Amino acid sequence: MTRTAIVTGAARGIGAATARRLAADGHAVAVVDLDESQAGATAAAIEAGGGRAVAIGADVSDADAVAAAVARAADELGAPTILVNNAGILRDNLLFKMAEADWDQVIAVHLRGAFLMSRAVQAHQVDAGWGRIVNLSSTSALGNRGQANYAAAKAGLQGLTKTLAIELGRYGVTANAVAPGFIETDMTRATAERMGVPFEAFLAGAAKEIPVGRVGQPDDIAAAVSFFCSEGAGFVSGQVLYVAGGPRG
Ligand code: NAP
To answer: Would you call 242 a catalytic residue per the annotation?
Structure first.
């Protein structure tokens, strides 16, 4: 069945792969990102493949922008019943050097953003009596040096996910989290740059620590999100799936 999906942070990386995958699954996709022109590239790729998509510029941490983005997705593509909260940023530093702004921004984008988007989209889901919410957590939720802000946000998303599952289940809405391990994107490229390590060496080093012997690709995460969004996953809710090439959690 064709649904309308919203994927945040979908201009590139995991979000772009997820938007393309949900379109390939037959859904119309609202590609939300900070910069509408960058989101446009993902939307254009979906349309070139015969799918339906619209690019929407919005900061997910801004309540007015979120309300406007969800309203526009509903107007242009139909009531959104699938939501993937993927938008994210890194502001890594050791605790003693971490600025308050770095803490606040990371919590705002990941946690407040997922809260605002979920609150706006659930109205459409409850009306439809069907919905899927997938939140992007991380293996960093288990704790990671230099990521007090990010680890707290990603662990917080797991609590949000379980609570959404409990509150919205009676309306036919499931909520689950995908927690990626190391995925090759601009985010991990930026981490390598910050550490002064060439990206190829960074990838090779990470692959050595991963049981399947390689780093993850955005499509690996998109496949897991696709499962949670499927009709057949209606009895799977409140779960956290680590997609990390080996056991975590
Ligand atoms: P990415 O390549 O950095 O892409 C993130 C996207 O989110 C960018 O397009 C960014 O836009 C957008 N964004 C940032 N702040 C936003 C805001 N306030 N409102 C709307 N969009 C915003 O990241 P990724 O590696 O694909 O990661 C996607 C998600 O997976 C994130 O939640 C991340 O924490 C999570 N994750 C990634 C990994 C990994 O190894 N890559 C592992 C675990 C979890 P701009 O380009 O304009 O900044």
So the answer is: no
- pLDDT tens across 208-241, in order? 999 999 999 999 999 999 999 999 999 999 999 9
Separation of CA 170 and ligand 1 centre (Å): 31
- Ligand 1 atom showing the smallest separation from residue 61 Cα: 18
Is 165 a domain residue? yes
pLDDT tier for residue 249 given thresholds of 50, 70 and 90: confident
- The answer to whether residue 249 sits within a structural domain is no
Cβ 191 under 6 angstroms from ligand 1: no
Structure token digits, residue 229: 């969004």
Write down the catalytic residue from 103, 115, 130, 150.
150
Task: Name the strand (E) or helix (H) holding 174.
Answer: strand 173-180
88 Cβ below 6 A of ligand 1:
yes
Å from CA of 9 to ligand 1 middle: 6
CATH number, residue 169: 3.40.50.720
Q: Which residues contact 241 (CB under 8 A, 6 or more apart)?
A: 176, 177, 178, 179, 224, 228
Do 38 and 102 lie in one domain? The reply is: yes
Residue 118 pLDDT greater than 90, yes or no: yes
Same structural domain for residues 225 and 188? Answer: no
Q: Give the pTM.
A: 0.99
Q: Is residue 248 part of a domain?
A: no
Residue 248: closest CA among 197, 191, 178: 178
Half-sphere exposure of 177 (CA within 13 A, CB side): 29
187 is in which domain, residue-wise?
Answer: 183-215
